[in-house]
Amino acid sequence: MSAAGEVAAPPDHGREPSSPYVELDRSAWSALGQTTESPLTYDEIRRLRGLGTHLDLDEVRQIYLPLSRLLSLYVESNGDLHRRTESFLRRPQPRRTPFVIGVAGSVAVGKSTTARVLQELLARWPEHPNVALVTTDGFLYDNAELERRGLLTRKGFPESYDRRKLLRFVVDIKSGKDEVEAPTYSHLTYNVLPDEKVVVRHPDIVIVEGLNVLQPAVVRDDGRTSLAVSDFFDFTVYVDAATSDIQRWYVERFLRLRETAFLDPASYFRKYGALSVDEAVTEANRIWNAINGPNLTQNVLPTRSRATLVLRKDRDHSVRYVRLRKL
Which of 30, 129, 133, 307 has the fewest CB atoms below 10 angstroms from its CB? Predict the structure, then answer.
């Protein structure tokens, strides 16, 4: 794939021995889940599906069910390593810390849907029924602070997040704290909700979903390298697609919001509800080209190579192939 993400070479199984990745096309990957029944119903899948995102029973069974089983194996292996390590250190064996999964990808690529589906599926495995999902939107600076810093038009870029607060949240999770709070975000008011929190209690698994969760550590002014949120992830998923497809999905979603959420008087974007279709398409492309596209190219896409697993989507949002880093 080029730096901007427009072109992706198909999996080449003939070169796998010289690659650090295993690449499986859709048919090979889906075969891994044929012996397991999907626990999700049609109504549950419809509830989990994001606006404009392709998701049906076949997609869950062929793509997400094998992925949930693979993740479950990683969780079980992590627990076994914990027990062996505690035995080696001759310490009492307290409850292991939660297994943390990072889910990254562009705006409109469907990463939120991926995270919600994984949460539902992983919670159905009896070994780890308590699965929490936290999005990093709540860790954005509020609009007043963004405006003070001159970052309101760069919302979603790495510098628009309170990275220290996000890092503290993940550190607390991996430290095994009994209860950890995360801020919440309203896409209706386009702002952090100061009086609402997500409370995570004794989770087996925590999924952290967001644009920039795979960002590397920041180098400080004194030359030292700080910790990164991704340093505390046990497994990471990057939801990928051609940039041209993601832009089209973004415009299509904007048009749907124009007919729904943007009409709400409480919506931050209510001014867009009065636009004609042509005006809305023009505005959506302008926003993409000014904000979301550059953020994808400069910040989000370069982190793809840091992921444990990449889900590569086709034009219709269905996953075309899966790339998994070898152990």
Answer: 129
The mean pLDDT of the chain is 90
CATH code (residue 109):
3.40.50.300
Which residues are within 8 A (CB) of 78 and not within 5 positions of it... i.e. 6 or more apart? 96, 99, 234
* Structure token digits, residue 291: 């904000």
115 found inside a domain? yes
163 close to 229: Cβ distance less than 8 angstroms? yes
Section 199-209 average pLDDT? 96
298 within a domain of the structure (yes/no)? yes
Q: How many C-beta neighbours within 10 Å does residue 17 have?
A: 6
Could you give the CA distance from residue 163 to residue 325 in angstroms, rounded to a whole number? 27
Instruction: Please indicate, yes or no, if residue 10 is contained in any of the structural domains.
Output: no
- What is the count of structural domains for the chain? 1
Whether residue 13 is contained in a domain is answered as no
Contact 146, 152 (CB under 8 A): yes
Bridge partners for 100 per DSSP: 206
Q: Residue 258 and residue 263: Cα distance in Å, rounded?
A: 7
Strand partners, 238: 104, 310
Look-up: residue for tokens 């390298």? Answer: 225
Torsion (CA) 238, 239, 241, 246 in degrees, nearest 10 = -120
Q: How confident is the model at residue 5 (pLDDT cuts 50, 70, 90)?
A: very low
Listing DSSP states for 268-316 in one string gives TTGGGGG--HHHHHHHHHHHIIIIIHHHIIIIIGGGGGG-SEEEEE-TT
In a 13 Å sphere around the CA of 110, the CA atoms on its Cβ side amount to 28
